[in-house]
Design goal:
Blueprint lengths: L18 E6 L1 H8 L14 H7 L1 E8 L9 H11 L9 E2 L2 E2 L1 H19 L21 E3 L3 H9 L3 E8 L9 H9 L1 E5 L28 H13 L2 E3 L5 H10 L5 E2 L16 H9 L3 E4 L19 H14 L4 E3 L18 H10 L4 H20 L2
Parallel strand pairs: 1-2, 2-6, 5-6, 6-7, 7-8, 9-10, 10-11
Antiparallel strand pairs: 3-4
Helix pairs in contact: 1-4, 5-12
Length: about 375
C-alpha cells in the first residue's frame, strides 16, 4: 500500500496519470436526472465507471442552488422532492436571487447527496442498504486535508472536496458557514454569475470584459476573512473584475480560479484577463482550465466539434503567463458543453495525449493533473 511518501504517479495504475478536477456539477446532475453514480450512464459526464476509465481521481464537487424562477418542469419536480409540500409556503427568490431559507434547504439536500456517495449508496436515508455496504474502494471519500487527499489518490480512493458555488446559503453572521465547515465545506465561490448579499457575479457574455459592475460588499469582504480564518479556499471563477480585485486586496491566501480560462484567447466575460492572471501568479495561486467550449473557442462558438488543440493553446498560454506550477484542470463536467473528444470523464486520456503531443512530459502532466492542486490546498488549508 502506498504511504504518504509514495510518488502518486507510481500509484496511477492503468489509467495513466491521475487527474484531480477543480470543478464539477455532478451532485445537481444526479438530483435532476435520478441516475445512479455507481452505474455507467450515457447521461451527464461523470459516474464511477467513466471516472475510473479516464483516470479521474476525484475533484471539487459543487453545491449549486438553481434559480427557482427559471427552472424547467423537470427541475420543479426535483424542487418539490427536495423541499416537500412546504415549497408552496416558502419564498424561493427575491430580486437578488434565491432566498436564504430556500438556498439552505437545497444546499443541505446536495450535501446529503455527497454524503450518500460516501457510503456507496445514492439512496435517501430510509432506503440505505446498511446491511450490504459496498467495498471501501467503491465509495466517494470526502476530503478535508491535503495530506489525506494525497494518500487517498495514492491508494486509488475517489476523493471529493465539498465546494459551494455561490454563497446564497450562508447567512451574514456566518453561523451556516461554520456549520457547513464542520460538515466538510473546504471551498467556496462567493458568487455564481448573479448578485447576492456578498458581491456581483460576472454575467455570461462574448465578447465582453469581466469589468461589469461593483465589487464585494462589506459582508463579502468579511466572508473572505472568515474563510481565510477557517481554511476555506476562495474561488474567484464567477466574480466580476471588481470583485476579483477586492478578493486580491482582502485575502491572505493564494488566489484561486477553479474553472476559468485565458481572456486573451477567448474574450468571454467569464475568462481571466492578463492582469488578473498576473495577480494569481503573484499570489502563488492556480487556474483550473474550464472545458466549456464557449469559454475556449476564440470566436465564442458553441460547437462541440472543437479540436482539443484549442484547449492546449489555453494551457500553453497559462503556463507561459503564470508558470507550470500554477496551472491545473477544472472541467465543469455535468455543467457545461464539452468538446466531442472530451465528452465525459472517460475521455480524459485524450486531453493528456494532446498535451503530450505539444511537448508536456510526465512531470509536467503530473503537475497539471493533480500535484498543483495539492500544493495550493496545502497552503490554503494549512494541512
Amino acid at each position: 500500500m502506498p504511504t504518504d511518501e509514495t510518488p502518486l504517479r507510481d500509484a496511477a495504475g492503468s489509467s495513466g496519470i491521475p487527474v484531480f478536477d477543480g470543478h464539477n456539477d455532478t451532485l445537481l446532475s444526479l438530483m435532476t436526472t435520478g441516475r445512479d453514480f455507481f452505474s455507467e450512464s450515457d447521461t451527464g459526464h461523470v459516474d464511477w465507471p467513466r471516472a475510473r476509465a479516464g483516470g479521474l481521481a476525484g475533484g471539487f464537487f459543487a453545491v449549486f442552488v438553481p434559480d427557482p424562477t427559471s427552472i424547467s418542469e423537470r427541475n420543479e419536480q426535483v424542487l418539490r422532492q427536495v423541499l416537500g409540500d412546504g415549497i408552496d409556503d416558502l419564498t424561493l427568490a427575491t430580486e437578488q436571487g434565491p432566498t436564504l431559507a430556500y438556498a439552505q434547504q437545497f444546499a443541505m439536500a446536495e450535501v446529503a447527496a455527497l454524503l450518500r456517495l460516501e457510503i456507496g449508496d445514492g439512496l435517501p436515508y430510509q432506503h440505505r442498504k446498511i446491511s450490504a455496504p459496498r467495498d471501501d474502494s467503491d465509495t466517494v471519500t470526502p476530503v478535508v486535508s491535503a495530506r489525506d487527499l494525497r494518500r487517498q489518490i495514492a491508494n486509488g480512493q475517489f476523493s471529493a472536496i465539498l465546494h459551494f458555488e455561490g454563497a446564497e446559503m450562508i447567512d451574514t453572521r456566518f453561523n451556516a458557514l461554520e456549520t457547513f465547515y464542520e460538515t466538510g465545506l473546504r471551498s467556496l465561490g462567493i458568487v455564481w454569475s448573479r448578485s447576492n448579499a456578498y458581491g456581483h457575479g460576472v454575467p455570461f457574455g462574448y465578447p465582453s470584459s469581466p469589468d461589469t459592475g461593483p465589487g464585494l460588499t462589506a459582508a463579502g469582504k468579511a466572508l473572505v476573512g472568515a474563510c481565510n480564518e477557517l481554511g476555506i479556499l476562495i474561488d474567484v471563477s464567477h466574480l466580476n473584475e471588481a470583485g476579483f480585485w477586492d478578493v486580491v486586496d482582502t485575502t491572505d491566501k493564494p488566489v484561486v480560479a477553479t474553472h476559468s480560462n485565458a481572456h486573451a484567447i477567448c474574450p468571454a466575460s467569464r475568462n481571466l484577463t492578463d492582469k488578473q492572471l498576473d495577480a494569481i501568479r503573484d499570489s502563488d495561486g492556480i487556474v483550473g482550465l474550464n472545458f466549456n467550449v464557449p469559454f475556449l473557442d476564440p470566436e465564442g462558438k458553441r460547437d462541440s466539434d472543437m479540436p482539443l488543440d484549442v484547449m492546449v493553446d489555453h494551457i500553453d498560454y497559462l503556463v507561459e503567463r503564470i508558470g507550470l506550477e500554477r496551472v491545473a484542470l477544472g472541467s465543469d463536467f455535468d455543467g457545461a458543453l464539452m468538446p466531442d473528444d472530451l465528452s465525459d470523464a472517460s475521455k480524459l486520456p485524450n486531453l493528456m495525449a494532446a498535451l503530450r503531443q505539444r511537448g508536456y512530459d510526465d512531470d509536467a502532466l503530473c503537475k497539471i493533473g493533480y500535484e498543483n492542486w495539492l500544493r495550493v490546498l496545502e497552503t490554503t488549508w494549512g494541512l
